[in-house]
Amino acid sequence: MPVPVIVLLCVLGVIVLLCAVCAIRAARIKKTLPDVKPAVQWTAEEENKYAADLSEMVKIPTVSKRQEEEWPDFALFQQKLAELFPLFFAKAENHDVDGNLLRRLPGSDPKRGALLLMGHQDVVPAEGQSGWEKPPFSGEIADGCVWGRGAMDCKSTVCCELEAIEALLREGFDFKEDLWFFSARNEENSGGGSDAAAAYLKEKGIRLNVVLDEGGAVVTGMFPGMTAPASGIGVVEKGFVNLKFTARAEGGHASTPPKNTPIARLSKFVAEVEKKDIFQKKMVSPIPEMFGCIAPYLPFYFRFVLGNLWLFKGLVTRILPAVSSMAGAFVKTTAAFTMSGGSAAPNVLPDEAWVICNMRPSVHQNAEKSIAAIKRIADKYDIETETLYRKDASAVTDAGSEEFRFLAQCVAECLPDTVVTPYMMTGGTDSRRFETVCDNVLRFTPTRLTPQQLAAMHAANENIGVSALAEGVKTYEYYIRKYNA
Ligand SMILES: [Zn+2]
Fold it and tell me: What DSSP string runs through 192-204?
């Protein structure tokens, strides 16, 4: 039976009405960043001092180690920090845990809570990376940048935090709130320093109002069509899982291969995981809040969609993986096959072959559920699944919390040309360990990074801008000052 014209007209009317509502909303949410002076300034002399201090820190090769006896560089590094920041190291109480720095600057008002600033001392190795234009532990200052392994990740964070605290101590600032500083020497190899420090605080019955660690930074091109830089404050970290998939068979000679050899089965399995969308797509906090922050600064067509998530949330969730791999990682678990092995010779069929998969479980599909989803595919090809390491996503700090909004406001005042937004970290930090003693774990260093600098993290030619460093110091100083008001 043909659909009556009146029904078609009604449907058309509803579509036109929805489009009109969305267009009006998209037009209304448009914003431009305020043309105001930043709340912080600094002198050339200060800029040079910060760069020189960071350079000294970079020169000490604090590469992550597992053995205690291999750690003399960390003692040197800590000695260097005490030289560079004498007031802080003289005044702060020593609560070091297993060689990881944990210090407390007591506040003058015992009724107030505590703030913890953190950043790790260790760095990933630079060996075997070609393309370093300056030696990785030279700490050279050239072309307006400090160069070397750790210049950005994460000695710049440590440098900014300590410079800010030291400057406040120099002027006799009244720290009302307890200020804790933590710096692990084994963050890059998940060595457990932060676990020990969090356990220590918990045992002492200490609750922290806020933990501020590395994580987000000030970056450009955060989303297609976004011209303003974004100050992304990490409020959650995805999980981390390593799986080993092993396929077995009778070996044999490569001249007479049977069907379905281990490598053939693994190949089919890997291809199916990549082709099929096996993980649940869902838009959970802080992604809607992030779109709420950035949509006003996007072109109209993005505002039309992202500014009307009440209507388009389902559609956006489905199409985000097609926008970019980063956008896709915001709404689902990811799986990357990173290592593989088979027989020992080109003309020998393997008895067993294996691949390693690194997964980053989402908040809504935790490690256990994500492993179950991929194991179902492995079972189809008679492949064994072994879990080598698993960690769920961290807790999500509420982007509506007072602590988040306070930091976001300070950042907006110090870096008014940037869009401040909560965001989901696809990588990890050790700040999540402090969830046991803090509800507000935030991950952000207020330094501007170019795309080259972002790409150089854990890679060759790591560096940070001298003026970005100064802006970072002054923003921390502003934040601590206001926090203690
Ligand atoms: Zn780091």
Answer: SHHHHHHHHHHHT
